[in-house]
Amino acid sequence: MPGAGELDRRITIERLTKTVDEFNSPVEVWSAFITVWARRKDGSDLVKTEVLGAEQVGSFLLSHFVIRSSSAAKTVTPTDRINYDGHIWNIKGTKETSEGRNRFIEISAVRENN
Prior knowledge:
Mean pLDDT: 86
Number of domains: 1
Strand order of the largest sheet: 1-2-4-7-6-5
Strand content: over 45%
Number of helices: 0
CATH topology: Thrombin, subunit H
Number of strands: 7
Distance between the termini: 32 Å
CATH superfamily: Bacteriophage SPP1 head-tail adaptor protein
CATH class: Mainly Beta
């Protein structure tokens, strides 16, 4: 179970909100949903992907962020994203950790490695 000192990263989980502008055109805006303390653990290697049709090669960093469970944290889904350390992380999945029932949530996320 993570101690208070292990949750040493401050992350903001952002949620996409849809509004309309003064011309009634749809506008999508990322807004801060919750800001929490987290523990970060990187995956073992960079994930390398190739898009053959476009002849592109890219690499992505996979990390797992563990946060305290809360009513708001339980609603985080892959449609949300993490803003941390100047990078945007796309959420791939969430799950309850084995470190105590309903105490912590693990969020798997990736970002471009550039």
